[in-house]
Each structure stands twice: as C-alpha cells, then as structure tokens.
Amino acid sequence: MTTERIYAKLVPIVKTYLPEDVDISAIEPDSNLTKDLNINSVHLVDIVLDVEDAFDIELANEDVENLHTVNDALEIIQKKIK
C-alpha cells in the first residue's frame, strides 16, 4: 500500500477525534496529534484501535509510545503492513 493510500485512509480516522475547535485542514503529516490537533489521550487510544482495525495490524506498546505525529502513524503502519 502506498503512503498516499495509507494517508487517505488515516485522515478520516484522525478527523473523527478532532475537537470542534480544530479544523480538518490542520491535519498534515507533521501535525502533532496532541499538541497541534488537541487530541486527548483517551481519543489517542481510540485512534490506535481504529488504525488496527482499518489496516488489520496490531500495534505494540512501543509503537504507541512513538506515535506523536501523523507522519509517525504513517511510518508505523507502513512497517506493519509490509
């Protein structure tokens, strides 16, 4: 799966958990999930679960600990689906 296809599948997942005061256009590869997009820790767990379901992968605790930006998510997903 290409990076573009992963990104296209990932953005709607992240969008679901954006607070009302954050515009969807703020989602970029270098966006920090908690600092830039204001996603709280509970919703971060929801994103991890949704990513696991959407891509049919399992993220280890180490993967989750290294998940800070949208780009981090892209890289982790790419490694897991190969």
Overview of the molecule:
The chain has helices spanning 3-16, 41-55, 61-65, 70-81. 56% of the residues lie in helices and 0% in strands. Helix 1 (3-16) crosses helix 2 (41-55) and helix 1 (3-16) crosses helix 4. It is globular. It has one domain (3-81): ACP-like (Non-ribosomal Peptide Synthetase Peptidyl Carrier Protein, Chain A, Orthogonal Bundle), CATH 1.10.1200. The model has no long low-confidence stretch (mean pLDDT 95). By secondary structure, it is an all-alpha fold. The chain has 4 helices and no strands.
CATH topology: Non-ribosomal Peptide Synthetase Peptidyl Carrier Protein, Chain A
> What fraction of the residues are assigned to beta strands by DSSP?
under 5%
* SS elements, strand count: 0
Q: Spans of 5+ residues with little confidence (pLDDT < 50)?
A: none
Note the overall shape: globular
Number of helices: 4
CATH hierarchy: architecture: Orthogonal Bundle
Please estimate the helix content: 55-70%
The figure for the number of domains is 1
Run of helices and strands: HHHH
The name of the CATH superfamily reads ACP-like
- Average pLDDT, rounded to a whole number, is 95
Give the structural class.
Answer: mainly alpha
Largest sheet entry:
none
In angstroms, what is the radius of gyration? 12 Å
**End-to-end separation:** 8 Å
Text of the CATH class: Mainly Alpha
